[in-house]
Specification:
Layout: H1 7-26, E1 33-34, E2 40-41, E3 48-50, E4 54-56, E5 59-61, H2 71-82, H3 85-101, H4 110-140, E6 146-148, H5 156-165, E7 169-171, E8 177-179, H6 181-194, H7 205-243
Parallel strand pairs: 5-6
Antiparallel strand pairs: 1-2, 3-4, 7-8
Length: 254
């Protein structure tokens, strides 16, 4: 069923889709990078879901030696974090929350209002991912991945501080830590673009600053979930194994 929304919203949502796909295919020649001995090897991207549900294709093991990823892989991260089945459901939940709160009253209520909020929320997510994981990291030679410390990387407090501060610190393509320009420039660009499809009364410095703060805040929360999510899943797995409870799929927990 097509999503009901203003033409600009639908146009930008489709534009984000096309831009990510186009970048991925046009950069196909960069799929491989030379290793230390000069041979071409493809660097794998960790693919996992936070808490088994939330898409997260940008996690790397922070305890292992650094290995760079290609420009194509950066855009692949943006693509896969935007266009996976759970994201459509999550976007729907956000749209429902905005509907209940009557955000942007000019959208109205009912299916039409919900469709506009869904389209806007989806465009926000896709455009933000495109710039923070793809465009800006590729342009500035920075790595969009989150380098997870894991249970061997220190105590809970240390890992929590590490996760939160990654919105300010990121690695470049050489593996050195530097300011996280993609997080701020990418989200600022996405916020600016969103003025094209949000109501006119929200196109001001105050609302834009609030949108940017919320986007970065969500990134910090996502880092925390990425850092501690696997620990929670292991605890849940041990609990279901000890109690004999089976996951929804019907397969025994391993």
């Amino acid at each position: 069923m097509p999503i009901i929304g203003p033409p600009k919203t639908l146009f930008l949502s489709r534009l984000a889709w096309c831009a990510i796909f186009s970048a991925s295919f046009l950069l196909n020649a960069q799929d491989q990078v030379p290793d230390q001995e000069g041979s071409a090897v493809e660097k794998p991207i960790d693919q996992q879901r936070v808490l088994g549900v939330l898409p997260n294709y940008r996690t790397a093991d922070g305890t292992q030696p650094f290995a760079p990823i290609t420009t194509k892989q950066k855009f692949t991260i943006a693509l896969k974090n935007s266009y996976t089945p759970p994201m459509y459901l999550i976007t729907g939940v956000y749209a429902a929350m905005y509907q209940l709160q009557d955000q942007n009253p000019s959208y109205g209520q009912g299916l039409k209002g919900y469709g506009k909020r869904y389209s806007s929320a989806f465009a926000d997510q896709a455009i933000s991912n495109l710039f923070t994981f793809g465009v800006v990291p590729a342009a500035l030679h920075q790595d969009p991945r989150y380098f997870r410390l894991g249970s061997n990387g220190g105590g809970t407090g240390h890992r929590l501080r590490y996760a939160v501060t990654r919105i300010f610190v990121a690695r470049n393509d050489k593996g050195n830590w530097t300011f996280n320009y993609p997080e701020w420039i990418g989200n600022a660009a996405a916020t600016a673009i969103s003025n094209a499809y949000y109501p006119e009364d929200t196109r001001n410095a105050r609302d834009n600053a609030q949108k940017l703060t919320v986007r970065v805040g969500f990134s910090a929360a996502a880092n925390i979930l990425t850092e501690f999510g696997p620990d929670l899943m292991r605890k849940f797995s041990r609990k279901t194994k000890s109690t004999g409870i089976l996951p929804a799929s019907g397969d025994p927990a391993r």
